[in-house]
Amino acid sequence: MGELTDWLNQASSGDVGAANQAFDRVYAELKRIAQRSLGSQGCATLSATALVHEAFLKLLPGTAPPLQDRQHFFRLAARAMRQIIIDEARRRAAEKRGGDVIHTDLAGAIGHGVESRVSDLLAIDQALDRLEARDPGLTRIVEAHFFAGLTFEEIALDLGTSDRSVRREWETARAFLLRELQEAAPP
Amino acid sequence: MSATSDWARAKALFQAALEREPDERAAWIARAAGDDHALRIEVDGLLAAHIAAASQLDGEARDLLAGTPEEPQLPPAIGPFRPTALLGRGGMGVVYRGERTVDGGVQTVALKCIAAGFADPALVRRFERERAILARLAHPHIAHFIDGGVGADGSPWFAMAYVDGENLLQWCDRERLSPRTRVRLFLQVLDAVAFAHRHLVVHRDLKPSNILVDRAGQVRLLDFGIAKLLDDAEAATLTLAAGPMTPEYAAPEQVAGETVSTATDIHGLGLVLFELLTGRLPYAAANASAWVAAVRDSEPGRLRDALARASLDSRRNLPASELAKRRSLSETELKRAFDRDLEQVLAIALARVPAERYANAEAFAADLEAWLEDRPLRSRPAGWRVRGRKFLRRHRAAVAVGAALVLVGAAGIVATVWQARLAQAQAARAEAARRVLSQLFQAADPQSMDGRALSARELVDQAAARLHDDRRMDSELRASLLTDLAAVYRSLGEPGRARRLLAEVGAATGIRLETRAQALLQEARAAISESDHTGAKRLTERLAALLKAQATTDPLRIELSLLRAETAYQRQELGSVVAGLQDLLRLLPAEDPERMQARADALLLLGEAESDRQHPELALGHLREALRLYQRSGASTATLNSTRHEIARVLGTSDRFDEALPMLRTVLAEHTRVFGSDHPLSLSTKGEIAHLLRRQNRFEEASALFLELIEAKRRTLGPDHDDLAVAQMNYGLLHYFRDDFARALPHFEEAARIWTRSLGPDGERTLTARDALAVVHAELGQHERAIAEIDAVVAARERAGENDSLVSALNSRGVVFDRARRLPESCAQFRRAIAITTRLQPDAPEESRWTRALLGRCLRRSGDLAAAATELRFAHRSFHASTMGPGPRTAIVAIELARTLRAQAGAPAEIDGLYQEAIRLRRDKLEPGHARTAEAERERADWLRGEALPAAL
After folding, report:
1. CA-CA distance, B376 to B918, in Å (whole number)?
2. Which helix (H) or strand (E) holds B213?
3. Which of A50, A115, B397, B681 is the least buried, fewest Cβ under 10 Å from its Cβ?
4. What's the pLDDT score for residue B92?
5. Closest by CA position to B803, among listed B612, B649, B609
6. Which domain holds residue A102?
7. What total of structural domains would you count in chain A?
8. Between B722-737 and B680-695, two packed helices, what is the crossing angle to 10 degrees?
9. Torsion sign (Cα): B455, B458, B464, B466
10. CB–CB of B46 and A118 under 8 A?
11. Which active-site residues of B does the annotation give?
């Protein structure tokens, strides 16, 4: 799929339209895989990291895409995963407010008693927006680790730093987010 | 506190605080923040949140949606099994513990669900067939494959024996096992892999997480054959289960997307053993793509170096002292454990080229056992002092025992398709005979070899001797092994020994007709290699009698027809080759899939014959059809590319360089990708490219290629190999055609030395080299030596009758006499050469253009100016008309013509035109500052000043 590679390249040279195209493509693919994996009677429920890896194989086939493409891809995919999960959380929150539960594809995989967690997710998303304003780098790490399930080693490989320093950044971001959540929590 | 700069300071302070001991942090922050209260509040808040919820958010966001990890949603049923717990999730699927009730008892299994769909029902059927094979794979160290299936949604699942165990690496570290104990445990892994390979099951994904040690301390391999099963799945790339991010356990051929075989598992085993011993991996790479590049392009590191190297990977960056501790040794002791033998074992297992690795897990195990018992390794003789990789390079065929058959088989003089096909056929039989043969080879006693490395030849000799002595062996098996060994001898250039082995098969009784026919076929081909025409004919007739009752379309009968054509081709009876093959082709329907390869074989040989009959267009037609059939019948890449090589070669003989060169370059890239750059097939193609570049006068490019070729051949074949002589000869010719005789001399000498040694002083190729050597000596003023040499060459050529070789020997003798100023004798040689060429090719007078130029010069020097001018004008025209375009020889002709015209007081404009042409050509075609260019410039300048031509010219 040369298409995505082209968009990634254009995006890296600052083309916003191409960046959006690439994001949409990755988002759509991740969502498609997520729905399929959740629809298969739970047998093959994929972890977020597996979803991202599978999307990678689908969208950038071939043995070794250029490192730059890979880095772009995983950043995009991490952002897309955040979007997918938050969209789903919003949908469930809305369902709950509406009072009638619709068992659609994703809903089938929801466990019991997770309402509070859904609202946690929405709060985390908002806190993440505040973090973004201060430190976009930390936000990327949260998206990659927390939303896309990439390990510190994997993130370090693509950022070209040590996983020790990724871990330190993650701890910083986590402290920030938790503090924001505590402050936002009702007394 | 919202400005980015404030945050940057808070972040730096927070991170620095985390570096302190927990009880010092608060005081430290107070000190560092000083009067900045906002900053202090910010950092304190972060630290409080950090302490309060150190583990929160450490899962995945998706877990928050899907429920807590402790209460996973279990599917109600997978096949006949009921999942009872989630064991793990990662890679490309999920693993559950599952149960079912069998005969009143409860069977516990590990259930693996893969998120990949089978789109095609045919794939499902194949999956089910493979599954049956795996289910029969029962071995104490392999987690038994119990069942597998495809769910309603198309995603495959597998059930295998549930192993309550721990990852091999972790277990060894926890138990603080010494390297020796680790190796002993690793032998269980090898045993399991050897067993699976014998049942033709390849793992393809060997890595520590797939190797467990159970409660009883026994090794259990997981996921055997699963990668292969999944290969048919929609997303085949999923088999890189670790995902594209961490290709740490992929072999070079996997990284390159090439064919995966048992050799891939050997590499995987090498990596696991390396990590088991050192706690590190053999490559240093900062990230995944650097890792891929390192695996593909560099040699693996040594055990000792790995220990000294800091790992870039956090999971493997324990200090050497800690690694030693986990092996119950001191650092020094650990280093000492990694001795030269162990390094050697790892170097072989991790060889980049699959064929250089251990041929099988048994051979790998045999070396490790030898190491454990302090015996010399089987893969190297005692007293060997050279480093492993060097040894590998010199004796790669001897090391990879089974692969020796294939490698040696391909190392013929000129790799033609026939040889590629022969190597392939050998490889197929070798595969079947590998176990028996490798035992034969392994029995070779390294200590009897006076500390020398065993050559492939010696290994084969010992195998043959054992085969000769072993009378208990099944006669059928023995006959086919003898036939295989004979094929090896034939490709080693010893058809005589091949025939002696095959005679043993001939004398044997009670073997099947097919086995006997194969032996006769092989024996006849050995006779052809020996140029024993009568013998070949007699054997062919015996084979014909044996196969009389078979149908004409029987594969062996078809082989017989091909053999007849080969025999005729060898005798250069091209007419009967063509007639015989055309008869054969009538028996082989064009689109019959069963006979497609045989038809392609026949067309290929027909193409070669037509090319020799100077019918390049016909030849190209046949060769292209052969290529198409090979493609359709799924012939190997080697066969396809060798056929392309032949097509390009024929294009080259027709001077169609623009078509031939790109084709050869593609073939070279393919051969290099498949076999490596030093393989005989790659080198042969490289040689053809260099040859064509030289013929196009593209000397710089040709020269660079020839040097590469000579270096590669010397490295891989040794200093005395015939193939090296070919390269030396061609490179010498390149210098010769540029009149650089001093540089040509050593290369011709080397070629003549090698060929005299292998073919005798009168061998066809030896004579070619000696001919060239004589001329170069003459050019360098060593006349007596030159005349003696060329007289011997001409005498030997005359014995073979009138042909192109005699023409070129006569030309050479003419030049040699000319340089010795014996002009009447010189002119006589050229006249005789022209007469022969005209008889051989009455329709192509331009073929003698160079001889005519030489005669023209001789005539001019003899004073016969009119006759000289006629010859030289003819030669000049012919060189310009040649599709190769004018080259250095054209310059010589132009100058000779100018000199003749000067002596005849011809038109100055024409004379100057010729001089200028010569100067221009020499500037273009010879390297800058070449003496001949300066000579031509000087001669023209002297002429312009009115000076006479020196008498010496």
Report:
1. 66
2. strand B211-214
3. A115
4. 53
5. B612
6. 2-184
7. 1
8. 10
9. negative
10. no
11. 205
What are residue B81's DSSP bridge partners? Answer: B78
Task: Check A154 against B256: CB less than 8 A apart.
Answer: no
Q: Considering only CA atoms, which of A60, A123, A115, A52 is closest in space to residue A84?
A: A52
- Strand runs (DSSP E) across chain A, as ranges? none
pLDDT tens profile B193-204? 988 887 777 787
Note whether B248 and B191 are within 8 A (CB): no
Q: How far is A44 from chain B (nearest CA, A)?
A: 5
pLDDT tens, residue by residue, B294-339: 777 778 888 888 877 765 555 566 788 888 889 988 888 888 888 8
From the list B7, B64, B68, the residue facing A120 with the nearest CB is: B64
B66/A46 Cβ within 8 A = no
Contact B208, B129 (CB under 8 A): no
Q: How far apart are CA B673 and CA B258, in angstroms?
A: 9
What's the length of chain A?
187
Residues of chain A positioned with their CB less than 8 A from the CB of B90:
47, 49-50
* Cα B315 to Cα B777: distance, rounded to the nearest angstrom: 67
Using CA coordinates, name the residue in chain B closest to A169: B15
d(CA B370, CA B382): 12
d(CA B174, CA B328): 11
Tell me the chain B residues in contact with residue A37 when contact means C-beta distances shorter than 8 Å. 115
Q: pLDDT tier at B851 (50, 70, 90 boundaries)?
A: very high
Residue B685 one-letter amino acid: T
CA distances B293 to A162, B132, B249, B252, B738, Å, are 20, 38, 13, 9, 41
For residue B392, what pLDDT is reported?
A: 33
Rounded to whole angstroms, the maximal C-alpha distance in chain A is 53
Least confident of B115-119, B299-303, B678-682: B115-119
Cross-chain residue pair B287–A158, CB shorter than 8 Å: yes
Separation of alpha carbons B430 and B450, rounded Å: 29
- Answer for the pair B46, A170: CB distance below 8 angstroms, yes or no: no
DSSP structure class, residue B380: S
> For residue B377, what are the CA distances in angstroms to B193, B367, B388, B647?
21, 5, 12, 46
Q: How far apart are CA B321 and CA B184, in angstroms?
A: 23
Question: pTM here?
Answer: 0.41
Considering only CB atoms, B78 lies closest to which of A43, A67, A124, namely A43
Residue closest to B189 by CA, chosen among B231, B143, B229: B143
